[in-house]
Amino acid sequence: MSILTNPLDLLVQNLFFELPGLVDRGRVVLKMEGYNVTGSIKIKPALFMIAELERRGLIEPHRSTIIESSSGNLGIALALICSLRGYAFICVTDPNVSAVNLRSIEAYGGRTIIVDSKDANGGYLETRITCIRDLLRDNSDYVWLNQYANEFNARAHEEWTALEILDEIPEVSHLYVGSGTTGTVMGLARRFAELSPDTMVVAVEPEGSVTFDPNRKGRRLIPGIGTSRRPELADPELLDRIVYVPEIDAIRMCHRLARRQGLLLGGSTGSVLAAIAADAAFFDADSTVVAISPDLGDKYMDTIYSPDWVRSSYGTGATMPDDGQAPLPCEPLKEIVARHSREVTIIANRCREVASYRRDQAKQQQTGT
Ligand SMILES: Cc1ncc(COP(=O)(O)O)c(C=O)c1O
């Protein structure tokens, strides 16, 4: 790993994690995106969308203000990029935003506006959009990214994420992707149609989301995945299958992953893995199932990982304090230490040689030889 100077180079491109035991036949591999700077996959579409505005000369540092509706990962990613590039950033959000997300946006220097009147659908999305439109009308230097309709949201995944997967795993039989704006799944579907047409591309939706079916409207509490209005980017023609996951299955999967596999992941990762577990009968011994993990669990301590929140949101039977399953066996720790020590020993020997060379040089200089 080289020494970085720009936080935007902190993009972890090739981190994959295999999950044994989730399905009876085939391999399941997670592409981990939560270790990117700002903690999620959203840094990539944020970069693509702002870079395109810069390329077209539509924004100018220290003059333009970027405005976007987000209650989560995109808002945090935009706040960082805008502060580094000298744009002001306003994130329009609603009372459901978590304290940690709000504080993260503000910590990077973004401004937040919390709308508090509900729209005709009983949510806040339309109120947020109205707020943005009002601000755009009154401020000529404001620019709205509109992630739900912005082609460069999907392009980030078509041009980066898809190739990162195919570079590491050329034979992907099934690709499972959670959908929010649908930028990730649409971008991946387009590139896989070109380079890996036999891969079955599956969009994972929480029950209650209307992205691909307006009749499914219902209560949803897990952020990041699902919508209450169809995103302009969504094109079901590019998908092989859409799986609907009950939120409680996603939450149980998150708890199971933390206890059994030592992975503390976000709710959309739980949804995608719950969809894979439900589809297990479709896979055979040769299947390689890849899933996207957009973020880690640390952002969800007050929701998904809070027994009180789970109980009050889904009922008393919903929490699983202990499902009786032991964590997967782990090799003795001395072997892990030894594995890393072997690498470090080589470095130590190299450092000793350099130190001894420098000592000899210094001695020669002192004695004038
Ligand atoms: C937590 C989370 N889940 C799912 C997704 C996928 O969303 P989208 O369809 O907007 O690309 C994202 C964002 O990329 C996310 O941050």
UniProtKB/TrEMBL annotation:
Keyword Transferase: yes
Species classification: Bacteria, Pseudomonadati, Pseudomonadota, Alphaproteobacteria, Hyphomicrobiales
Subunit note: Homodimer.
The entry's keywords: Pyridoxal phosphate, Transferase
Cofactor: pyridoxal 5'-phosphate
Signal sequence region: none
Pfam families the UniProt entry points to: PALP
Official protein name in the record: 2,3-diaminopropionate biosynthesis protein SbnA
Domain Tryptophan synthase beta chain-like PALP: 26-295
Tagged with keyword Transit peptide: no
Gene3D superfamilies listed in its UniProt record: 3.40.50.1100
